[in-house]
Amino acid sequence: MLFDLDGVLADSTVAAERAWTHEFGADPGQVLRGVHGRRSADTVRLHVPAVVHAHAVRRIDAIEIADAGSTEPIPGGREGLGCPSGR
User: Fold this and answer.
1) Is 37 helix (H, G, I), strand (E, B) or coil?
2) What are phi and psi of 72, to 5 degrees?
């Protein structure tokens, strides 16, 4: 059973980049180096002032969910699961 598909079967880098540059002003390069495999709350703690943590987690999650359509399959992921290569 596969629990973590981001970075394994799907690439949500575009959504993450948009979320982190949207209103918190965090350096997307620095954030993206450690965002995959980490809960958004943990990433927020590392890059956003403590006074806005709860708000930031809600906003980051909402932005990433709204932008989920930008998620792309990792090349070879479908084939690795034995799925057809179409979208």
Assistant:
1) coil
2) -115, 150
